[in-house]
Amino acid sequence: MTKKILILNGNPKSTSFCQQLANIYTVEAREYYEVKHFNLSEMAFNPILDSGYDADQDLEPDLQDFQKWILRAEHIVIFSPIWWGGLPAKLKGLFDRSFLPHFAFKYEQDNPQPTPLLIGKTARIVLTMDMPEPFLEEQARPVLEQLDKYTLQFSGIEKAATNLFGSMVSATQEEKQNWEKLVKSLGSQGI
C-alpha cells in the first residue's frame, strides 16, 4: 500500500519561496507516494470561526477536501513563512476552521482532557523567516508551540520534524539551492 502524504503550502501569497519548496517536495514525493498538494493561496474559505464552537459553521468545499485529506494522510508536510513572529492569519484560520471538535479531538463526559482523533499520523513543518541563522530557533519557538504542540499534537499527530530556513532576505543563491536539495531529499523519502 502506498504512503499517503498531504502537502500544504501555507503561504497565502500566490508566489513565494514556500511555494517553490512545496512544489519541489511534491514533485519528488509523487514518484513514490500518493500525494495531495494544497496551496493556501488557492483555497477559498472564510478564515474566521465566527461563533467559536458555539454554533456549526458550514465548511466550504476547499475545507471539506482539506479535512478529507487530513483523515486520509499518513504524513502531513506544512511549509509556512513566519510573519510578525507567528503564522500568517489565513493559515491560522485554516486550522481554526478545519481542526474542529469531533474531527480533530473530542471531549468525553466529565474528562477535562480531550481525546485526540488524528492519531497514527506523522508531520514535518518547514518554516522560512527573515531572521539570521543564530535567531531561527528563537523566532520559530512560538510558532512551533502553536502549530505543532497545540494543534497537531493536541489532535493526536506525532511531534513534527522541523526545518528552519533563514534569513530569506539575505540568503545567497547557494543557500537557497542547498535548502531546495534538502527538501528534494525529504520528498523522495516521504518524510
From TrEMBL:
Keyword check for Ubl conjugation, yes or no.
Answer: no
Give me the Gene Ontology terms describing cellular component.
cytosol
Q: Tell me, what is one Gene Ontology molecular-function annotation carried by this entry? A: NAD(P)H dehydrogenase (quinone) activity
Quote the InterPro entries the UniProt record gives.
Answer: Flavodoxin_fold, Flavoprotein-like_sf, NAD(P)H_dehydrogenase_qn
Q: Where in this chain does the record put each Flavodoxin-like fold domain? A: 3-177
Keywords, A to Z? Oxidoreductase
**Keyword S-adenosyl-L-methionine (UniProt):** no
Q: Name one Pfam family in it.
A: Flavodoxin_2
> What family is it from?
Belongs to the NAD(P)H dehydrogenase (quinone) family.
Q: What is this protein called?
A: Flavodoxin-like fold domain-containing protein
Per the UniProt entry, what species is this protein from, by scientific name? Answer: Pseudoalteromonas luteoviolacea H33
